[in-house]
Design a protein that fits this description.
Layout: E1 10-14, H1 19-30, E2 34-39, H2 42-54, E3 58-63, H3 69-83, E4 88-91, H4 106-130, E5 138-141
Parallel strand pairs: 1-2, 1-4, 2-3, 4-5
Length: 145
């Protein structure tokens, strides 16, 4: 079965430098999408970008932390302004840190921000931004800790 082309489509993937995010980015790019990888680690981002380009994909990178919602909004606006479209937004950023059950620790607060609050804030921003637009945006949120 032939895969549908995503030529001309634009995607933003948080956590796109490794793991599930990189896998999604690589698959989308291999089908023709222009992918923006967002992550905190610049070296991992550069390596991911290089790998996607080697395979013939189109990609750019942005160093950012998903917990910094204004920074992510700025990237969304920049990508949309540059391409006049945004077709897919993949909320995928995550990290592993051990948690103490029953404790209200700083780590637990960071985890809540990472896997619950930030994706919700970004999704609400995207919904409001594209509510009255002809741009048909697809949003996927992957939550794993």
């Amino acid at each position: 079965m032939e895969q549908d082309s995503l030529e001309g489509k634009v995607a933003i993937i948080t956590g796109g430098s490794s793991g599930i995010g990189y896998g999604i980015a690589s698959a989308l790019a291999s089908r023709g999408a222009y992918v923006y990888l967002i992550a905190r680690d610049l070296k991992k981002l550069e390596k991911a970008k290089s790998e996607i380009i080697k395979k013939g994909g189109k990609t750019e990178i942005r160093r950012a932390d998903i917990r910094n919602t204004p920074e992510i909004r700025n990237i969304i606006d920049e990508v949309y302004e540059s391409h006049k479209r945004l077709d897919m937004f993949i909320n995928n950023a995550g990290e592993w840190s051990g948690q103490t059950i029953g404790a209200e620790s700083k780590d637990l607060q960071k985890t809540r921000k990472l896997i619950r609050d930030s994706p919700t804030e970004i999704t609400e921003y995207l919904i409001n931004k594209f509510r009255k637009s002809d741009n048909r945006l697809q949003i996927l949120t992957i939550i794993s800790q």
